[in-house]
């Protein structure tokens, strides 16, 4: 079987084309979609993610500012900082880069972002809207997965879908969305995690697998059904002395072993990762539009 490689780039380009039109419309009314990104501490990966997001914003003529706060920032002062951004009309979206230093309670702090500026879709109010089937902001990575499925015309209606991983960021929202009565949903969804007794049983019977686990190459070809579709959300660094950096990035899926067996698979890198930044842009443009009404 020929396996289609579900690259993120063409999907992202198509969405950015559509966004350019919306951004020009907003600019005609002197509105430039703007994002405030907050990083607490010195995590190198977080800084890299945020700078790639900032670059994507400026490429599309949008605005972003990165606020770097010291790692010993107290919960009280972080909440105050967020409140100032909530009240600052210059910013339409607020992104709090995770993970936060250990002394800060992520769930509690995320609640302080104004739901109308919560472009990462992690405020309980926005997660509740997803559960009710009336999404406002869908977290960027699950939204990116849905856009990939849509772009490549992968039918979800009536399909057996296995989501592996139950984080608020990825697994739970995508499992909820794909089980609902939407054009990109209507699947029969099974949500697996570390207490799942026989992961192999579920993956082997799935038409679509979405892996958001954080375990390199967990899903092997003997765990999947021939002709299935695989969306690999995982981004994992593994040692590789043959590369200049000494490591390489792999997904949760043993990509090479899927080729020739499954109908389609996302590569890592080059699949879902690209979409996450694009969907942050998209959510911020939507936020700017909604706040202009
Ligand atoms: P997370 O919060 O650590 O959640 C991981 C989930 O996987 C948990 O629900 C955990 O189960 C489950 N799990 C772990 N090991 C498992 C196993 N052996 N079998 C079955 N389930 C297992 O991670 P996350 O934030 O959702 O991220 C998941 C992966 O996606 C990571 O590699 C991350 O880097 C990547 N990611 C990529 C993007 C992107 O832009 N492409 C964005 C976000 C995240 P329990 O609940 O039982 O612990």
Description:
- This protein is α/β, with parallel strands linked by helices.
- It folds into two domains: 30-115, Rossmann fold (3-Layer(aba) Sandwich); 140-272, NAD(P)-binding Rossmann-like Domain (Rossmann fold), CATH 3.40.50.
- The chain has ten helices and eleven strands.
- It has helices at 8-28, 44-59, 75-86, 106-110, 124-131, 140-151, 171-179, 199-204, 255-258, 272-292, and strands at 4-5, 34-40, 63-69, 93-96, 160-164, 188-192, 208-211, 229-232, 236-239, 247-250, 264-265.
- The protein has a six-stranded parallel beta sheet with strand order 1-11-8-7-5-6.
- Helix 1 packs parallel to helix 10, helix 2 packs across helix 10 and helix 6 (140-151) packs across helix 10.
- The chain binds NADP nicotinamide-adenine-dinucleotide phosphate.
- NADP nicotinamide-adenine-dinucleotide phosphate (NAP) binds at residues 141, 164-167, 169-171, 192-196, 199, 212-215, 218, 233-236, 272-273, 276.
């Amino acid at each position: 079987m020929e396996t289609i490689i579900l690259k993120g780039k063409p999907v992202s380009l198509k969405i950015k084309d559509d966004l350019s039109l919306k951004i020009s419309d907003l600019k005609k009314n002197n509105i430039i979609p703007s994002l405030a990104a907050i990083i607490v501490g010195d995590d190198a990966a977080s800084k890299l993610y945020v700078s790639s997001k900032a670059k994507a914003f400026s490429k599309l003529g949008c605005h972003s500012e990165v606020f770097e706060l010291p790692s010993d920032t107290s919960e009280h002062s972080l909440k105050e900082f967020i409140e100032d951004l909530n009240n600052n009309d210059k910013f339409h979206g607020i992104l709090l880069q995770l993970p936060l230093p250990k002394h800060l309670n992520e769930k509690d702090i995320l609640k302080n972002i104004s739901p109308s500026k919560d472009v990462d879709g992690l405020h309980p109010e926005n997660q509740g809207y997803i559960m009710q089937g009336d999404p406002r902001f869908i977290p960027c990575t699950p939204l990116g997965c849905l856009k990939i499925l849509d772009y490549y015309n992968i039918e979800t209606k009536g399909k057996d879908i296995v989501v592996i991983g139950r984080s608020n960021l990825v697994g739970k929202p995508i499992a909820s969305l794909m089980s609902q009565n939407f054009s990109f949903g209507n699947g029969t969804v099974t949500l697996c995690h570390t207490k799942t007794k026989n992961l192999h049983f579920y993956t082997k019977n799935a038409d679509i697998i979405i892996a958001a686990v954080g375990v390199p190459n967990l899903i092997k070809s003997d765990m999947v059904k021939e002709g299935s579709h695989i969306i690999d959300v995982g981004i994992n660094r593994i040692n590789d002395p043959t590369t200049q950096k000494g490591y390489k990035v792999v997904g949760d899926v043993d990509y090479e072993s899927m080729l020739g067996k499954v109908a389609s698979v996302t590569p890592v890198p080059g699949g879902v990762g690209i979409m996450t930044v694009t969907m942050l842009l998209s959510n911020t443009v939507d936020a700017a539009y909604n706040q202009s009404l």
